Amino acid sequence: MVVSTMISLGAVSASYGGEDCERETIAMTSSPDGKWMALVREGECSDGRIVTVSTDTVQLVPRSSLQTIPLERSPDQPRHENDVLVVDYYGHFESRPVLQWLSPRQLQVTIPNLSGIGMQKSSYHDVAIVLRFDPDNPVARERWRKQRDLPR
After folding, report:
1. pLDDT tens readout for residues 64-104
2. Which of 8, 12, 58, 125 could form a disulfide with 118 if both were Cys (CB 3.0 to 4.6 A apart)?
3. What totals of helices (H) and strands (E) does the chain contain, helices first?
4. Can you tell me the distance from the alpha carbon of 96 to that of 110, in angstroms, rounded to the nearest whole number?
């Protein structure tokens, strides 16, 4: 029996040391000037017994460094310095982040209103990260977070 639970990816890395984590790139888009690549990477970390955490991570990579990122499913660390958003995936395609460049230095990431956010950055290097909820219902989102005892 596999149990999926909402544990922050940081807690998983502390518990499991990262050796039982894998990621694969499932979406990718280039900034309008071609300097940056934004990737959505699906990740799973497991303790090898009953806890498995599935997340989608938005990662920014300079285009010139893209060849250093394995795009296929491969062992990986649970966190990277260039991760800008981590959300719980829950195994539903419609829960995945959607990426849209608003300008060469502004990336919009759209996620469902009721999303478990494990980590969020407002910028990375010279790129601003704009988080958008769809649909955007702050009252429902706050109630959902409180019911699950999630941080703001």
Report:
1. 999 988 888 888 877 889 999 999 876 677 789 999 999 99
2. 8
3. 2, 11
4. 9
